[in-house]
């Protein structure tokens, strides 16, 4: 776990810190007291920052090179780079979760007495979760705002999940499998919520690869490696098809996704561990985290839907 914190009233110190922690940038302030507070928690492929600016601060920044999502809790953030295809200013307010800028593009705007959360991850995760329609082409995010309000809520919930239940939880951020699963979850939520180049019609070649044989190879690989960090790309490589073809195969034959199936395999494994565990020494939370489930409430909900009872009841069950 990497942790850092910053607390200053100096605009010069803030500019230096932001340029080091994010990307080179220049800032301007409109207040005598430029109070800035920033804290970061980072582990594995994820980092989450909490930022608070008690004043209005303009910024002109170079590209981040990573996917950077903002969830605003108070105040506003203004984009002036035209990254969302709009002329002039695009204003984001409390309750909105959005992309601060395309990962490969410079950006500029203003923070207006705002408090917000930042979640960042590598762009490679987007390709692993949903490759673009053109073979070999990377997925590119094409807009800052989510496609609708429901998508905004889902993306905000994904950022909060990583912040509150993964990187704020020592038992979670010490588990590499759980960190990988959480990063994949955040990348998938990003692709589901934001406009991107992968939102295209399927290509015929991928449809022809979506066969039962593809599915059998993928299922065998998932079931043999569910306790390891595996991605959509790993499963596709084991099945000798493209990730997109793999997605079609699972949707066509099982009405789920490859990662949805992986989650079910891990849920079944957790179920077996709960049945075999000694309730005097084992806990539901410990077993859930071992299989990549960081949020106890979410795990309990999935478990109850699958088995018709709570995981705690299963742990206490004895013949």
From TrEMBL:
This is AraC family transcriptional regulator. Keywords: DNA-binding, Transcription, Transcription regulation. It holds the Pfam family HTH_18. The keyword DNA-binding applies. Residues 216-317 form the HTH araC/xylS-type domain. SMART domains: HTH_ARAC. GO terms for molecular function: DNA-binding transcription factor activity; sequence-specific DNA binding. It comes from the Bacteria. PROSITE patterns: HTH_ARAC_FAMILY_1, HTH_ARAC_FAMILY_2. InterPro entries: AraC_XylS_family_regulators, Homeodomain-like_sf, HTH_AraC, HTH_AraC-typ_CS. Transmembrane segments: none annotated.
């Amino acid at each position: 776990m990497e942790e850092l914190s910053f607390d200053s009233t100096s605009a010069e110190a803030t500019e230096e810190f932001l340029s080091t922690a994010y990307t080179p940038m220049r800032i301007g302030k409109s207040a005598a007291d430029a109070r800035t507070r920033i804290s970061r928690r980072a582990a594995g492929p994820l980092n989450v920052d909490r930022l608070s600016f008690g004043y209005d601060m303009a910024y002109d920044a170079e590209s981040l090179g990573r996917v950077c999502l903002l969830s605003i809790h108070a105040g506003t953030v203004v984009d002036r780079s035209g990254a969302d295809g709009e002329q002039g200013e695009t204003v984001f307010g409390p309750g909105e979760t959005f992309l601060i800028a395309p990962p490969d593009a410079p950006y500029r705007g203003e923070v207006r007495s705002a408090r917000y959360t930042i979640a960042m991850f590598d762009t490679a995760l987007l390709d692993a979760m949903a490759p673009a329609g053109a073979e070999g082409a990377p997925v590119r995010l094409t807009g800052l705002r989510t496609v609708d309000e429901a998508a905004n809520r889902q993306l905000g919930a994904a950022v909060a999940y990583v912040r509150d239940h993964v990187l704020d939880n020592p038992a979670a951020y010490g588990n590499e499998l759980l960190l990988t699963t959480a990063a994949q979850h955040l990348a998938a939520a990003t692709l589901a919520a934001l406009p991107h180049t992968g939102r295209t019609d399927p290509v015929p070649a991928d449809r022809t690869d979506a066969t039962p044989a593809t599915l059998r190879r993928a299922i065998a690989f998932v079931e043999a490696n569910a306790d390891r960090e595996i991605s959509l790309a790993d499963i596709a490589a084991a099945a000798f098809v493209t990730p997109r073809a793999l997605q079609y195969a699972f949707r066509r034959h099982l009405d789920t996704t490859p990662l949805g199936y992986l989650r079910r395999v891990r849920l079944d494994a957790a179920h077996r561990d709960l049945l075999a565990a000694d309730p005097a020494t084992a806990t539901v939370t410990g077993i859930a985290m071992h299989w990549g489930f960081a949020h106890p409430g979410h795990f309990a909900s999935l478990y109850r839907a699958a088995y018709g009872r709570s995981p705690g009841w299963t742990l206490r069950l004895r013949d």
